[in-house]
Amino acid sequence: SQQGEEDPQALSIQEGENATMNCSYKTSINNLQWYRQNSGRGLVHLILIRSNEREKHSGRLRVTLDTSKKSSSLLITASRAADTASYFCATATGANSKLTFGKGITLSVRP
Amino acid sequence: DTAVSQTPKYLVTQMGNDKSIKCEQNLGHDTMYWYKQDSKKFLKIMFSYNNKELIINETVPNRFSPKSPDKAHLNLHINSLELGDSAVYFCASSQRDRGNTEAFFGQGTRLTVV
Question: Does residue A99 belong to the interface with chain B, where contact is any CB pair within 8 Å?
Answer without folding.
Answer: yes
